[in-house]
Amino acid sequence: MLNEDESEMDAFNYLKLDEPLDTRPLLNGESLEVSMMSQEGDSTIEMHRLQVPELYFNANDLLTYVDLTVKDSGCEVSPFEQIKLSMTELPDSEGKVSKKIVEAGIGEICPPDAFVKFHYVAFNEYDEVPFDVSKLRRKFPESKKLGSGELIPGLELGIATMRKKEKAHFIIHYDFAFGILGCGERIPPKSSLLYKVELLDFERMKVPENEDFENAVDEELSFQALLKKAEGHIKQGTYLKKEENNNHRAIKEYKTAVNILSKIPLNSDAEEKMKKHAITRAYVNLAICHNYDKRYRLVCTVFKDALYEGGEEAKKDAKLHYNYAKAQCGLLNFDLARKMYRQVKVLDPSQQDRVDSLIKDLERKQRQVDEDHKVFKSNMSKMFK
Fold it and tell me: N or C: which end of the chain has fewer CB atoms below 10 A?
């Protein structure tokens, strides 16, 4: 029943971006499923590009980050090519990542495997309105581990050349960004990007000696022993989430369970069935935690991984599909969210009334989004007349 996790499935927040896009599927040469608004004449594509930033951010706040240097100025070279004239190409980037230091940093250069804290503003070429501004999404800076695949390659390569407190601009070719496909509504195909980055702090990776089980499975243990170990981590994660409200540690426990189960040796169909049931539970709880943090792109990754690892068990799980629908709502992919909600009703008919109510809320929010777009477009027209 979906309502078992009612406390974790809080109200939707459609008007703010939760985090940078999760790019790992694209980096593996795969595509991402996105929904599109209904077409209205020849302006459909432009509407998609204009629509996105102002719907995630407060329009007045967004205007303070407008950069007219990325807009077409009528020169023979493109805006990014003009900007690159004052930049230096980074080693190991095949000439596809260029950097300009805006404000020098202090201390040593950031190690390539460090945990980093930073802020950034990101632009598409020819679009003076940024598609992402980290400071507008949350009070705290981005916190990532370099080398983990959470960042596009060009941004990761660039940050690894910075020092603490440094501010720098990077032009990143699409080969080192989101590839030939782009990513959803915000980033068109073959889009080179401008990132303005401020590296606040970093620290070298430290792995406690008593946590080595997370990265290796003892193959001498029996299937039942490993399954019990994984289920113990799932149980601990649920306790941390519900009783201590410690989402961060809960995520760690669920990830440990997934790691154990994904590597567990199987000797029978019965063992495979038990493994898929357990790993689907772990992924569902991960999705709930990421939705709680409004990290919707990570929910999408979890959903895909769950379908791959859990097979039919995951395909029949209503909670998994519910959380995927919720994440798509957070990303403003309303059509896909609506489709997933309808799938939840098929998987769990007892939830029909509740899901119908959620779909009505979705449609109300979509109307509000359309209205916000009209207001922002009007403000932009007045500002740049």
Answer: C
Closest CA to 8 of 192, 229, 197, 254: 254
Record the pTM.
0.49
3-state secondary structure of 69: helix
Go through the domains of the chain in sequence order and give each one's CATH number. Answer: 65-203 (3.10.50.40), 210-369 (1.25.40.10)
Contacts of residue 296, defined as CB under 8 A and 6 or more positions apart, other chains included, come to: 18, 19, 290, 327, 328, 330, 331
Written as six digits, the tokens of 56 are 């995630």
Element (H, E) at 200: strand 193-203
Measured at the CA of 83, the angle between CA 77 and CA 84, to 5 degrees, comes to: 90
Give CA angle at 297 (293, 301), nearest 5°: 110
Question: Tell me: the pLDDT tens digits for 220-245?
Answer: 578 889 999 999 999 999 998 888 88
Given a contact cutoff of 8 angstroms between Cβ atoms, the answer to whether 355 and 344 are in contact is yes
